[in-house]
Amino acid sequence: MSAIDLLSSSPAFFIGVCLVLGLVVGSFLNVVIHRMPIIMERQWREECAELEHPDHAATVPANAPPKEHFNLVVPRSACPACKAPITALQNIPILSYLFLRGRCAKCSVRISVRYPIVEALTGILSAVVAWKLGFGWPAAAGLVLTWFLVTLAFIDIDTQLLPDSLTLPLLWLGLLLSLFSPAPGVAPIPVDMRSSIIGAIAGYLCLWTVYHLFRLLTAKEGMGYGDFKLLAALGAWLGWQMLLPTVLIAAAVGAVAGIALLAARGQNRSTPIAFGPFLAAGGWLMLLFGRQLVTDYLGLFASR
Predict the structure, then answer these.
(1) 117: which of 93, 110, 140, 218 lies 20 to 30 Å off by Cα?
(2) Are residues 241 and 176 in the same domain?
(3) 130 and 147 housed in the same domain
(4) Could you tell me if 49 and 13 lie in one domain?
(5) CB-based burial of residue 225 (10 Å sphere; 0-12 exposed, 13-18 middle, 19+ buried)?
(6) pLDDT digits over 189-226, tens only?
(7) What pLDDT was estimated at residue 59?
(8) What is the domain range of residue 33?
């Protein structure tokens, strides 16, 4: 029996494989979450320097040391405190954190618990996607969407930014997958092209309108353009039908979480709170349970 046959014939094995895969991917997502904002900031600084000094590049000495490469691949991951490189054994998701007791092997500085949390969350969500969607292309697409949403949520928590380098590829990928949508009712994703295109447009315009109305009434900015693009991407993936429940869930959970955070930190209502994580959570729930929720809701009216 081939590996493909085993994955397709054994749901438990497929879920287990996706769980392990999610843990490994979660380890890489930690790198993306940490480095993406740094890469963006460096790019902004370079662009500002070029605008202020257009002839700067021409005046750089020929013997100047080359710029240090910094991207998602290089340099190698290291301890932020002592700069000791992290070995392959120290990179094993969750287990290495437990083995090291949450401290650097060289300098004993405490490692943030956020790293195993991201790994565990990505693994668990990946396993749930595998359980709900089963073996096939919809599950593969669902995993990709899940990994993007986890990354965007944590970057937004850290920096209140939703990078275009993640939201826009997610949007275009959702539109592209709509070209290969299965028969209606077969799988929640990909959706048909019409639903995807309308979803992308409506998703962007929905929050864009709310943003400008809020600014008109209060003279304040209630959210960022990254939120518009994230909801547009969710619309492209899930279809326009899932936009309203996604926004309602995000707003409800965001309101409760926001009040709790402000109360715990003793801050006032003017303190900004990232909305992207709540959109991501709402979109993920709609990915797996949205169709059934909408069907059950409409059924309440049909039975009367």
Answers:
(1) 140
(2) yes
(3) no
(4) yes
(5) middle
(6) 889 999 999 999 999 999 999 888 888 888 777 788 89
(7) 54
(8) 1-134
